[in-house]
Amino acid sequence: MQNSIEKLQEIVDRYENLVFFGGAGVSTESGIPDFRSVDGLYNQKYDFPPETILSHTFFMRRPEEFYKFYRDKMLCDTAKPNGAHLKLAELEKAGKLKAVITQNIDNLHQMAGSRRVMELHGSVYRNYCMKCGKFYDFSYIKNSTGVPHCECGGIVKPDVVLYEEGLDQQTLTDSVRAISQAQVLIIGGTSLAVYPAASLIDYFRGECLIVINKAPTPRDRSADLLIKEPIGQVFSQIKVKGE
Predict the structure, then answer these.
(1) Given pLDDT bands bounded at 50, 70 and 90, which one contains residue 222?
(2) 121 catalytic, yes or no?
């Protein structure tokens, strides 16, 4: 692993336009469960499969069941940024990292200090009334019971992309631009199994592709550097000039 860390350090030192594309594996070291691993949400038992509960159709038809699962499994305000989140924020502050593109909805990148974060699947920290559009924060949903309603009477919906829903076009446009302009693309903590998010990396035309993920990904063979270690441990060993 040390040899791989040294190679990663060399790349970080050499280039000035890095972009990070990450998934659930970035947050598992912060205690947030992923979906597809052995202990992930998809391998736990509920009255309905999680992918059914987290669909637009289910939300509209059975909002009480949706919110029971959502509060129990999707809201985690005790998690803290780990070494990966913190180092990415440092790299951005140093002018090296131009964007974080994340499939996560936990806000940990922002908590760590990252400013240019593109949330492909939204955030549990934003919620809105489906009737009047009024904004509601994390605590409103967490402390509510049953189906949360707005003062106007409308149902409050999390600003997260459910199954059957499309991704935000502006976020997609910004992500494509960042990836297509990057010299280095670092893919981390994702199996690249979720589409259309995973297809965004096809826009990379830069010089160096790095994959950091414990499990195999479809891009392992095309990676210039492949590291199969926990991403927080990897990034914790990287030095940012000025430290």
Answers:
(1) very high
(2) yes
Question: Are 22 and 118 a contacting pair, CB within 8 Å?
Answer: no
Structure tokens at 38: 């052995």
More confident residue, 33 or 63: 63
pTM of the model: 0.93
Instruction: Show Cβ contacts of residue 145 under 8 Å, excluding neighbours closer than 6 positions.
Output: none
What stretch of H or E contains 118?
Answer: strand 117-119
Q: Is 146 left (phi over 0), alpha (psi -120 to 50) or beta?
A: left
Residue among 56, 85, 109, 121 flagged as catalytic: 121
Cβ neighbours for 127, distance < 8 A, ≥ 6 positions apart: 135, 136, 137, 138, 140, 141, 148, 156, 157, 158, 159
CA distance 199 to 63: 31
Over residues 209-221, mean pLDDT: 96
Alpha-carbon distance of 226 to 74, in angstroms, equals: 30
Residue of 29, 17, 18, 32 lying closest to 234 (CA atoms)? 29
Q: Read off the pLDDT of residues 74-125 as tens digits, 9 standing for 90 and up.
A: 998 889 999 999 999 999 999 999 999 999 999 999 999 999 999 999 999 9
For the chain, state the CA radius of gyration.
18
pLDDT at 37: 46
